[in-house]
Amino acid sequence: QVQLVESGGGSVQAGGSLKLSCAASTTRRNKYPMAWFRQAPGKEREGVASMTGSGATVYADSVKGRFTISKDNAKNTLYLQMNSLKPEDTAIYYCAARNDGWYAPLVSAEYTYWGQGTQVTVSS
Hints:
Blueprint: E1 2-7, E2 10-13, E3 18-26, E4 34-39, E5 46-51, E6 57-59, E7 67-72, E8 77-82, E9 91-97, E10 113-114, E11 118-123
């Protein structure tokens, strides 16, 4: 069982930065794949960035070069540093964790555990 709690969302002007955090509470000792997804109003949930248990990362084309996913294993916390934000980045951002497996695909159906989401609003 994994419980995820996101924080760090907010409102920012275009070109600004935000850093999201996802604190994981779990009794599991093994490292497991985690990811960030987002969902804008009227749109499907989409993968933003992911990280395998060994630290390999994947990014959506729309955020490459602007967003960075990282993890502090000692704190069991996943991060998403978002720079050069654009109005189209406005969405609810969700943290997710896989129940098993090694890969970290940007496919929401592959993830079992989800946080409650945090709102990110970017104004022009």
